[in-house]
Predict the structure.
Amino acid sequence: MKNIGFLSFGHWNPSPHSGTRSASEVLHQSLELAVAAEELGVDGAYFRVHHFARQLASPWPLLAAVGARTSRIEIGTGVIDMRYENPLLMAENAAAADLIARGRLQLGVSRGSPEQVVDGFRYFGHVPDEGSDPAEMARQHTAVLLEVLEGHGFAEPNPRPMFPNPPGLLPLEPHAPGLRDRIWWGAGTRATAEWTAQQGMNLMSSTLLSEDTGVPFSELQAEQIERYRKAWADAGHDRTPRVSVSRSILPLVDDRDRAYFGRESGGRDQVGFLDGGKARFGKTYAGEPDQLVRELAQDEAVAAADTLLLTVPNQLGVDYNAHLLQSVLEHVAPELGWR
């Protein structure tokens, strides 16, 4: 069995060829796709977070709205750039969204991807400490977030408060029980995956790794997962961690699918440069369902993960993306034992 969700980048563009021509349209369609996905039996609705771009940015209103409109589906991010976040304010927002969703929030966070602007986090009021760097600042913000999500008191109460205080130091409110265990780190390397395990976070691995050893992407990602699980066991955590991978899986079951994605069939890994370093990008899986079943059966990382996030072309609209999800659930997942 596999936990299957979708991951939307939330693109919008005023072009007449786009099904999402404004921020308003992409927000409403994101909500409607989550509702449709739950009705289809999809397990998760995840959304990317990018700043200074025509994409989803502030996740909290959307996550809360999805939580209010659905009852079963997991709701998450993939990922929130922690360089931009005030961790205390984030903890309050996340807890409120999780309580609205009745404990279904799954938050993916990370040090962030290449930005649209130079050092965009500085516009949000965040500057690395002297001798530090933005990546370390993201980890510091994450450490604070994880600590306050535990719900322990840390703030000294006012001796003359507006309202009566309980005894002792005060925690942030509201508190969402269990949310600390539902934080995922988006790791781009094998070493970062090991660090993720040491921090007690779930592992979220994308369709790219910011390193390349010459082996196929799925093999390198499977090694990343193996090293993560070993580091988790070595750390002695008392729960079973979760691991997700993302894939573009596009079954060609009708003429519309073939018109959109027929040329993607037979894709392969790509190697390029990201943030000045060599990176390996995973292939797009596009083809007839029987072809996809054969190819995905050879994907070691998908086999190793308990959660699979299907990246969706959100600009093609809710109906078409629901069709893609249904095609995977009906024509691919059962043949691979995921359902």
Observations:
- DSSP finds ten helices and 13 strands in the chain.
